[in-house]
Write a structure and sequence with these properties.
single chain, mainly alpha, 1 helix, globular
C-alpha cells in the first residue's frame, strides 16, 4: 500500500515537472505521508 502511495505521488511530481508555470491539482486524496516525506507545508488563505 505504501508503495502505491509513493508511486502515485511520484507520478504527480513527474507530471508537474513537465508543466511549467502555475497549475492546480484537485481531487480527494485520502493518503497520509509521514513527516519525513513532506517537503513543506502549504496553507491556503
Amino acid at each position: 500500500e505504501d508503495e502505491e502511495k509513493i508511486a502515485f505521488l511520484q507520478e504527480i511530481r513527474d507530471i508537474r515537472a513537465d508543466c511549467p508555470g502555475p497549475w492546480m491539482l484537485c481531487g480527494d486524496f485520502n493518503l497520509i505521508l509521514p513527516w519525513t516525506g513532506r517537503t513543506r507545508m502549504v496553507t491556503a488563505t
